[in-house]
Design brief:
CATH topology of the largest domain: Rossmann fold
Strand content: 15-25%
Radius of gyration: 30 Å
Helix content: 25-40%
Structural class: alpha/beta
CATH architecture of the largest domain: 3-Layer(aba) Sandwich
Number of helices: 13
Shape: flat
Strand order of the largest sheet: 8-7-6-9-12-13
Number of strands: 13
């Protein structure tokens, strides 16, 4: 039997890098409520509809560089043919295949039956019927973890591609990697022996004992002709002491984070995901906790970082600092710090009776005084506060600088575009220099 072999040309779906595509869709997948700045923020899925995903994929295909020029030409066809309906149907089919592939690879989940949505799209050009709500999708933990990895890679690459290691300090310890001269063993040191130094000490001691007793130096050995090693002969190698760090990242999710024509919360979430991925993969001895502060404050699991949204809230900075301090006081790491990302002044505090006092006009003296009292409590607990401010109002600058001076922390006045580089570089470099 003769076989006939044909050249496999592939399909347009085969040309798509789905990891790159998911990165292009990160603004949609990490939606923070920017599309509805005056909404209550109660519906986490209002931005994650299949229609929104469909439009975002089209944007990535035609403007995001996901498809090559040849693939786009093949997809669109020759305009001179005049058969535009066939081209539109081919585009719709490709988008449906992409959505199915994203579900197969575990980036999103959707209702098991999407046929009704597809029929509506084919019959009415993508419009959603009035008799039923929009079909939504859920972002999976795998997608959020992947977005954290890509954000970390992109941010470190933009900063020069430096490698990330452990937190170096000026101390020396008896670790595994020898980077300094060996030293005599002391009780409590890791038994990372320096064989040559130990044997050399034993030989010098035995020769000295032999000379003292009138024996030839060549006979200063043990009974069996070997070298007897005693406790004072032991030498251990030294390595750089690498500290551990406990960090609480405080994210401001008040209403101002998505107002004034700029989404500041989505970049903040992206940086938090990158920091979580960095600590999990490069600093396994460190810990990271996430705290949201608004009218009040609450700790959230790290895996929920990508799903949180802003709301019609004020900024209760004191409640966030108090909760972060209580979390860090339970930690036993060498360093403890708070990374606070905000764009506004403190405008609320929680009274002793549980009621919330709010004032959004200027820096309220009562709110500021109570907030500084909590900053002083953090300083007494040995907790450093590094503030990343996404605004540059004169009063805010003065407030943030005073916070930094009280806790001997740092104040960064940055933008959503440069926030990630500041946070990651500070985490890997600056804070470790405070350990002596």
């Amino acid at each position: 039997m003769k076989y006939r072999y044909l050249k496999y040309t592939g399909t347009l779906l085969d040309e798509i890098d789905f990891e790159d595509l998911v990165s292009k869709l990160s603004d949609l997948l990490l939606s923070s409520g920017f599309s509805d700045p005056w909404g209550a923020g109660s519906d986490d899925n209002e931005d994650r509809t299949m229609e929104a995903l469909h439009d975002a994929i089209l944007e990535a295909l035609f403007s995001g560089g996901v498809l090559s020029d040849d693939a786009l030409q093949q997809l669109l066809g020759d305009p001179a043919d005049g058969d535009q309906e066939a081209g539109r149907q081919q585009i719709e089919d490709l988008v449906e295949q992409i959505i199915d592939r994203m579900m197969d690879q575990g980036f999103i989940t959707a209702p098991p039956d999407l046929e009704a949505e597809r029929e509506r799209r084919r019959g009415s050009g993508g419009a959603i019927g009035e008799d039923s709500g929009p079909v939504t999708f859920e972002v999976t933990d795998k997608a959020l973890d992947f977005l954290g990895y890509r954000a970390l890679r992109d941010l470190l690459g933009a900063a020069g591609g430096r490698s990330a290691g452990r937190h170096d300090t000026r101390h020396l310890a008896t670790g595994v990697e020898a980077v300094a001269a060996s030293k005599p063993y002391e009780f409590g040191d890791t038994m990372n022996l320096d064989p040559s130094g130990t044997i050399l000490n034993a030989v010098h001691r035995l020769h000295a004992e032999g000379r003292g007793q009138g024996y030839p130096t060549s006979s200063a050995t043990g009974a069996q002709g070997g070298i007897e090693v005693d406790y004072p002969d032991l030498m251990v190698t030294q390595s750089e002491y690498q500290s551990s760090c406990a960090t609480v990242i405080m994210l401001d999710c008040s209403h101002s984070m998505i107002l004034y024509g700029e989404d500041r919360f989505t970049p903040a979430k992206r940086v938090a995901l990158a920091l979580a991925h960095l600590i999990r993969t490069q600093y396994p001895g460190d810990s990271l906790h996430a705290v949201l502060f608004h009218d009040s404050a609450e700790e959230i699991p790290l895996k929920q970082l990508g799903r949180v949204r802003v709301g019609p809230y004020y900024t209760n900075t004191r409640a966030g600092l108090r909760l972060a301090r209580r979390i860090l006081e339970r930690q036993r790491q060498d360093m403890r710090q708070i990374v606070m990302v905000t764009d506004g002044k403190p405008s609320a505090i929680t009274r002793p009776d549980g009621r919330i006092y709010k004032n959004a006009f200027g820096l309220d003296p009562h709110i500021v005084t109570e907030t500084f009292a909590e900053v002083n409590a953090c300083a007494k607990a040995g907790i450093m506060i590094n503030t990343f401010m996404l605004a540059r109002d004169h009063d805010l600058v003065a407030f943030v600088r005073r916070v930094a001076s009280i806790c001997r922390g740092k104040a960064y006045f940055t933008t959503p575009h440069t926030l990630g580089q500041y946070v990651l570089m500070d985490y890997m470099d600056g804070k470790t220099k405070t350990i002596h």
